[in-house]
UniProtKB/TrEMBL annotation:
Name of the protein described by the UniProt record: Probable RNA 2'-phosphotransferase
Record family assignment: Belongs to the KptA/TPT1 family.
EC class name: transferase
Native source organism of the sequence: Chryseobacterium takakiae
E.C. numbers: 2.7.1.-
Function: Removes the 2'-phosphate from RNA via an intermediate in which the phosphate is ADP-ribosylated by NAD followed by a presumed transesterification to release the RNA and generate ADP-ribose 1''-2''-cyclic phosphate (APPR>P). May function as an ADP-ribosylase.
GO molecular function per UniProt: NAD+ poly-ADP-ribosyltransferase activity; tRNA 2'-phosphotransferase activity
Any Pfam family matching the protein: PTS_2-RNA
The keyword Transferase appears for this protein: yes
Keywords, comma-separated and alphabetical: NAD, Transferase
Length: 180
């Protein structure tokens, strides 16, 4: 994604995932916002963008955070919400192992208490180590955790796969966590 769009993308993450009230945006029960309303309300906050620029942000965001509906009249974040919405995700069988990146200073707590969703709707997991490591780098010296998701699934734990291929679950007990 072009550097000029990073600020807009971050602002869109804020209003579509966490605080739509910052601009008075209405999200439906599934997190969808009207594109024209979003564009108008963002402009009032000096976050102007054209529809072509929004297309570029949606298409080139490295984490594929946003998605349009079929006719591009609505937009939403794929996951990562701290507000209560229903993403209409269907349970999926995960691969045998998935990965979670965290900062070194979180490891002791994780090994004691597990991985909690905290203010988010789900715990996020990656199918590739590089992505998980990048997530861990955002918070300090990264540590890559391998999660025994196949075993979790066998034990009745539910998993979902978001539109942008992030694996989601509610909680990861320490018994399913291995340090790389």
């Amino acid at each position: 994604m072009k550097n000029q769009y990073k600020q807009i993308s971050k602002f869109l993450s804020l209003v579509l995932r966490h605080k739509p009230e910052v601009i008075g945006l209405n999200l439906d029960e599934n997190g969808w916002a009207d594109v024209k309303e979003l564009q108008e309300k963002c402009a009032k906050q000096n976050q102007d963008f054209t529809l072509e620029e929004l297309d570029e942000i949606v298409e080139t965001n490295d984490k594929k955070r946003f998605i349009y509906n079929e006719d591009k009249t609505k937009i939403r974040a794929n996951q990562g919400h701290s507000i209560d919405i229903d993403l209409t995700l269907k349970p999926q069988q995960p691969p045998e192992f998935l990965y979670h990146g965290t900062a070194e200073n979180n490891v002791k707590s994780i090994l004691e208490k597990g991985i909690e969703k905290r203010s988010r709707q789900h715990v996020h997991l990656s199918s590739d180590k590089d992505t998980a490591a990048k997530v861990g780098m955002r918070h300090g010296k990264p540590v890559l955790l391998t999660i025994m998701t196949g075993k979790m699934y066998e034990n009745g734990i539910t998993f979902y796969l978001s539109e942008n291929k992030v694996w989601l679950t509610d909680f990861i007990d320490p018994e399913y966590i291995m340090i790389q």
